[in-house]
Amino acid sequence: MPVQFDPFLTYLRTERRFSLHTTEAYRRDLEALAVFLSRQFGVDQPGAVSRTMVRSWVAFLMEEGYRATTVHRKLSAAGSWFRFLQKEGMISQNPARHIPRPKLPHRLPTFLEERGAEALYRLPGVEGITYPERRDALILRLFYETGMRLSELIGLCDSDVDASSGQVRVTGKRNKTRLVPVSKDMVEEMRILSKIRNEHFSGNQEDAFFVTDRGKKMTRSFVYHRVKKYLSTVTTQRKRSPHVLRHTFATHMLNNGAELNVIKEILGHSSLAATQVYTHLGVEKLRSIHGKTHPRS
Asked: Does residue 173 carry a catalytic annotation?
């Protein structure tokens, strides 16, 4: 389409405070929509797009085998863009509004049992004295003990650690910050790690708490592969990612009596609905035990 997406993407970054990763995902989705509308309907102006055309796009995506979650995301991107154009006075109505969406599958988060989580503290190699060994051990524990997201851990700086109050300042989605409590042991481990890092790399040049083996700021893939490596030694489940440890944190907190609102605040969820999925995990566990132990189940 002749209409450029850049003003909308700039709006997402500056006013909505979307991450670069999310913004680029929106760009790809909108470019794919533009290609579809041009090829199928010969439309190259957003004002000429109808609800029927958008519905056809959704049907096309489903026929191409896209997952329902992916279709939801793409339709959300389209809806946000058209809504932006409507507010800017470039179109009169949003053709993506009230478009029926495919039903999402009911999936429960994957998490480690408590024995598996405890095994993280006994992994061979992660209690070494070198910086990479100490770093990897702390990354695993920080994910499990705070439930922070991958992007949040990468974004940690030395100034985010408040040893006196036992808290870490985390910058989450849309640059919203929150304070997450950490144990005295965790504070001490973070102090030791930062000392080893500064000695090994002659100061912290990256303004990042965690750095790579070469002293550079970590990437998402770097952390993901480190976590996957260690989780592979304590579990056989297919999903072995930092987000599994986030789910594990929330599940274990709930199972041990934490209130849902407390978990919500620590995780940085914008609404309680996102946190309530963990209550279903408890129900599923009870159902599983009932099915295995009751003679009439």
From this structure: yes
CA 3 to chain centroid, in Å, comes to 31
Burial readout 182-192 (b: 16 or more C-beta within 10 A, e: otherwise): beeebbebbee
Tokens of 62: 């489903």
Distance between CA atoms of residues 145 and 249, nearest Å: 6
Which one from 74, 141, 246, 252 is the annotated catalytic residue? Answer: 246
The conformation of residue 98, written as its DSSP 8-state character, comes to T
Active site residue 98: no
What residue segments make up the domains of the chain, in order of their start?
6-87, 114-292
| Catalytic residue (one of 135, 141, 149, 240) | 149
CA distance 237 to 282: 19
229 with 126: CB under 8 angstroms?
no
Give, as one character, the DSSP assignment of residue 286. H
CB 140 within 8 A of CB 120: yes
Q: Give DSSP secondary structure letters for 184-236.
A: HHHHHHHHHHHHHHHHHHTS-SSS-SSB-TTSPBPPHHHHHHHHHHHHTTT--
Instruction: Enter the tokens of residue 173.
Output: 């989605």
- Is 87 catalytic? The answer is no
- Among the listed residues 26, 131, 144, 278, the single catalytic one is 278
User: Each residue of 42-99: pLDDT tens digit?
Assistant: 998 999 999 999 999 999 999 999 988 899 999 999 999 999 999 999 999 999 998 9
CATH architecture classification, 6-87: Orthogonal Bundle (1.10)
Measure the CA–CA gap between 119 and 61, rounded to whole angstroms: 42
Given the candidates 3.40.120.10, 1.10.10.10, 1.10.443.10, 3.40.630.10, the CATH classification of the domain at 114-292 is: 1.10.443.10
| The model's pTM | 0.66
- The answer to whether residue 39 is catalytic is no
Question: Does the annotation count 269 as an active-site position?
Answer: yes
Q: State yes or no: is 229 an active-site residue.
A: no
